[in-house]
């Protein structure tokens, strides 16, 4: 049995504890917003939050999530300031990597609410996008970072 | 629906500007098209309006990021007089009504979707609008001149009548469909050229977008497949004893494609696959190593066995002027889309259903029907969003594989490729070698341009497959392969972008030699243009330097004064302040026509510790009428990132017939930190729209190579470039 908090709700399931969190989310819990890209932590498509920090769920055994708090793209609620900025800036093309991009961006803003362009580039360099949406990713994050009154801390507080 | 509408013949013909549009619900594919319900207003195959006012457009093309859904919705919205976001959309099923009118296949490629469909879809919107207005005329007793369609309603000019489209569905569906409707003039467009959002952005931002990978019919198991590492091998024997003991494993068996390991989820399937021992049949003959292939291409260039595809004789004798020559080479490339290939299959009574993100759902249908030996109509394809396509998802190998697994398993199953499977079993952009020469004269003129291209033919392999889906199923493969072999001799895909050289040189010849390799080949964003633009525009730069003329001026001088090439060159030169780069920055320029659009790019670099650094890329495109300016800019930038990833890193190599690369660490793509700022200029044009998805890619590699020459004085004639 592995038990953890998922998007604010407790889940408990019987699963091989070595199973990567990605496949527990997708195959056991039906949360398909988290994407499989490389299986080696190289592309960032599977990024989720573990206690608020961005991790690669494809190479994180579910056992590491035991007793902790996991947030996926579904947990951001669809109306998160970053998600609104993503829509406003038309960031996605094929869209496959964007859940991971947004989760990395959300973790960045949680630790550094007002990053500059260079911070953003560095923090987002682990997320590949084959369509080449990097400029818009950067612009969308900057537009949210500029909103001073927004406090990103609440989302992963557990 | 009335019988008259059912009998409407789909006849999309654009002849001298006249366009008739309709469709037949029982088309030659044999199966009637069933979309929506009898209560809907459905004037043609593409559009239906439901009684509650929901508007749904069937998208006949694959959405792989290029924005085709948004573009198509915008075109219909303009004429239907609704906001684009009011139009819902669905990926069209396989049906002859949705076959591309030029290609006769339901295929997404050649950057053709908007070029081919822009007028058809405006007609769809206008036809529905006028039929709804006719319904309002019947309801109100007013004449056409007293009514206006706007914002999804039909109103009378005096305001007394005000009907939502939903209120008119019941009447409209019983009326004859409006014909000979007038399209709005461009100066009245509200959305075309102005709308700059994406209608699929929300779903792709909140995680709800459904890709092939997300399909999950009830009771669906997951399969992985152990394929032969070389492309001409098959399973000889296997031992699955240990794998079958792995928790969660349901079955292990061989198919014609490899050894399938089926389990309750991807992880147990993948873990168990590691415990299967497989012996494959030994590799056959042919070129099996990258070194041997490179040598074969070089040997071909040394010979004279070339098929001419263009031969404009020179007016002067050869032997005058200075001979300039160079040999160029580019490698195999993988597509490496972010979503690894996958497909899901459920057997039905007479065939099967398949969930897949496909650029060619009719090829997928054909592939599935051949595996099950059933009529094509017995296969239902549910097309999904594509997590990147770039040409890879026009092939249906993943579909054939999953259907074969389902055939044995007799349960719904999803086949998931690993990233390693995806990298090692691609349909690769073929390697190419080019020998190119020309004569530079004292007066600056150029003569005796000769480009010889040697490399494998994509169409020799792919055309027979496509024909399989177009011809009756009983026609055997042999004759189709003969056609492929014939086309392969002068493969138009191998020479595109060289054959159409736009420069006014005295004497141009282009020829090709097909070098066959035992490796699957496929279309890769911009196809032949991806390598020919590199060779041609690098060599034009060589000629400019040999002639002692500025590379921009050299190009302008040899292009027609009123040409599109000159216009985009001037636009990009202005944007980049050509000739006035900041101190320590170096610029390279290139211009290239592809998919009926024309793009020029300037790549600006600096040298940091002797190593080149990308500083900025400037791009100008003439793609005719722009539908969505933001999407065109994104496609240019995306195409450039795609090209620069290949120019700097892209190389697939073979050893003993197997691909050596496996994942993003040894097949690298540009990342956020590697991508320079970019500026895109859309050259204004009222000409009909042309390609956008691919034309941004070809000029980037030569512009970069030319910038490197400007910075270092060294000419790089191979891709990937060696940067310092």
Automatic annotation (TrEMBL), chain A:
Gene3D superfamilies per the UniProt record, alphabetical: 3.10.20.30, [2Fe-2S]-binding domain
Range of residues in the leader sequence: none
GO molecular function, one term: 2 iron, 2 sulfur cluster binding
InterPro entries: 2Fe-2S-bd, 2Fe-2S-bd_dom_sf, 2Fe-2S_ferredoxin-like_sf, 2Fe-2S_ferredoxin-type, 2Fe2S_fd_BS, Beta-grasp_dom_sf, Diverse_Oxidoreductases
Presence of keyword Metal-binding: yes
Domain of life: Bacteria
Domain 2Fe-2S ferredoxin-type: 1-76
UniProt KW Magnesium keyword: no
Keyword list, A-Z: 2Fe-2S, Iron, Iron-sulfur, Metal-binding, Oxidoreductase
Name this protein carries in UniProt: (2Fe-2S)-binding protein
Organism whose genome encodes this protein: Haliea salexigens
């Amino acid at each position: 049995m592995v038990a953890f908090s998922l998007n604010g709700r407790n889940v408990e399931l019987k699963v091989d504890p070595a199973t990567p969190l990605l496949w527990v989310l997708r195959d056991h819990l039906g949360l398909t917003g988290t994407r499989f890209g490389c299986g080696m932590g190289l592309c960032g498509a599977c990024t989720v939050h573990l206690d608020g920090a961005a991790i690669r769920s494809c190479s994180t055994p579910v056992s590491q999530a035991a007793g902790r708090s996991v947030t996926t793209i579904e947990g951001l609620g669809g109306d998160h300031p970053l998600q609104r900025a993503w829509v406003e800036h038309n960031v996605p093309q094929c869209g496959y990597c964007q859940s991971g991009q947004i989760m990395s961006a959300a973790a960045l803003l949680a630790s550094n609410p007002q990053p500059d362009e260079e911070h953003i580039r560095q923090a987002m360099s682990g997320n590949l996008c084959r369509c080449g949406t990097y400029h818009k990713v950067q612009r969308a994050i900057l537009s949210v970072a500029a909103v001073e009154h927004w406090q990103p801390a609440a989302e992963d507080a557990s | 629906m009335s019988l008259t509408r059912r009998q409407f013949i789909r006849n999309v013909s654009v002849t001298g500007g006249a366009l008739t549009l309709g469709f037949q619900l029982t088309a030659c594919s044999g199966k009637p098209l069933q979309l929506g319900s009898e209560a809907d207003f459905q004037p043609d195959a593409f559009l239906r309006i439901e009684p509650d006012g929901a508007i749904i457009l069937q998208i006949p093309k694959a959405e792989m990021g290029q924005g085709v859904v948004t573009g198509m919705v915008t075109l219909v919205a303009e004429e239907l007089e609704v906001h684009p976001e009011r139009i819902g959309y669905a990926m069209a099923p396989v049906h002859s009504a949705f076959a591309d009118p030029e290609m006769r296949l339901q295929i997404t490629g050649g950057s053709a979707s908007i070029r081919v469909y822009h007028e058809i879809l405006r007609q769809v919107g206008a036809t529905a609008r006028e039929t709804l207005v006719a319904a309002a005329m019947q309801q109100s007793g007013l004449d056409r001149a007293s009514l206006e369609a706007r914002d999804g309603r039909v109103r009378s000019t005096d305001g007394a009548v005000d009907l939502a489209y939903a209120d008119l569905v019941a009447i409209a569906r019983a009326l004859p469909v409006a014909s000979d409707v007038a399209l709005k003039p461009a100066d009245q467009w509200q959305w075309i050229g102005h709308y700059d959002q994406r209608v699929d952005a929300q779903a792709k931002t909140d995680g709800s977008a459904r890709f092939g990978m997300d399909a999950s019919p009830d009771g669906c198991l997951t399969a992985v497949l152990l394929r032969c590492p070389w492309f001409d091998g098959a399973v000889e024997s296997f031992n699955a004893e240990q794998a079958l003991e792995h928790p969660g494993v349901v079955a292990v068996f061989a198919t014609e494609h490899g050894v399938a390991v089926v389990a309750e989820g991807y992880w147990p399937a993948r873990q168990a696959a590691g415990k299967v021992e497989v012996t494959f049949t030994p590799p056959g003959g042919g070129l099996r190593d990258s070194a041997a292939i490179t040598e074969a291409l070089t040997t071909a260039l040394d010979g004279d066995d070339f098929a001419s595809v263009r031969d404009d004789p020179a007016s002067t004798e050869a032997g005058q002027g200075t001979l300039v020559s160079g040999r160029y080479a580019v490698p195999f490339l993988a597509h490496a889309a972010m979503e690894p290939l996958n497909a899901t299959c459920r057997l039905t009574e007479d065939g099967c259903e398949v969930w897949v993100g496909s650029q060619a759902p009719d090829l997928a249908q054909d592939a599935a029907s051949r595996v099950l030996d059933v009529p094509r109509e017995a296969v239902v394809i549910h097309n999904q969003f594509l997590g990147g396509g770039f040409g890879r998802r026009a092939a249906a190998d993943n579909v054939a594989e999953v259907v074969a697994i389902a055939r044995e398993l007799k349960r719904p199953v999803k086949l998931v490729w690993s990233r390693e499977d995806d990298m090692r079993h691609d349909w690769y952009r073929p390697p190419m070698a080019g020998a190119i020469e020309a004569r530079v004269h004292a007066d600056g003129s150029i003569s005796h341009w000769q480009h010889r291209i040697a490399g494998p033919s994509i169409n020799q392999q792919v055309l027979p497959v496509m024909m399989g889906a177009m011809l009756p199923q009983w026609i055997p493969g042999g004759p189709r392969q003969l056609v492929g072999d014939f086309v392969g001799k002068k493969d138009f895909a191998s020479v595109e972008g060289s054959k159409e050289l736009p420069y006014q040189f005295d004497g141009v010849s282009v020829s090709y030699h097909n070098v066959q390799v035992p490796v699957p080949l496929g279309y890769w964003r911009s196809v032949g243009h991806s390598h020919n633009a590199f060779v041609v525009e690098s060599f034009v730069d060589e000629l400019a330097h040999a002639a002692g003329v500025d590379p921009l001026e050299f190009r302008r001088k040899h292009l027609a004064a009123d040409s599109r090439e000159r216009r985009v060159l001037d636009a990009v030169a202005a944007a980049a302040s050509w000739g006035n780069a900041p101190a320590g920055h170096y610029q390279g320029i290139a211009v290239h026509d592809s998919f009926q659009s024309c793009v020029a790019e300037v790549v600006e670099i600096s040298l940091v510790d002797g190593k080149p650094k990308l500083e900025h890329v400037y791009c100008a495109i003439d793609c005719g009428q722009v539908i969505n300016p933001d999407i065109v800019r994104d496609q240019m930038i995306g195409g450039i990132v795609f090209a620069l990833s290949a120019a700097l890193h892209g190389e697939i190599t073979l050893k003993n017939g197997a691909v050596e690369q496996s994942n993003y660490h040894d097949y690298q793509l540009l990342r956020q930190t590697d991508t320079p700022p970019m500026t895109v200029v859309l050259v204004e044009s009222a000409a009909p729209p042309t390609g956008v998805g691919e034309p941004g890619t070809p000029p980037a590699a030569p512009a970069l190579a030319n910038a490197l020459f400007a910075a270092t004085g060294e000419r790089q004639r191979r891709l990937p470039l060696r940067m310092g």
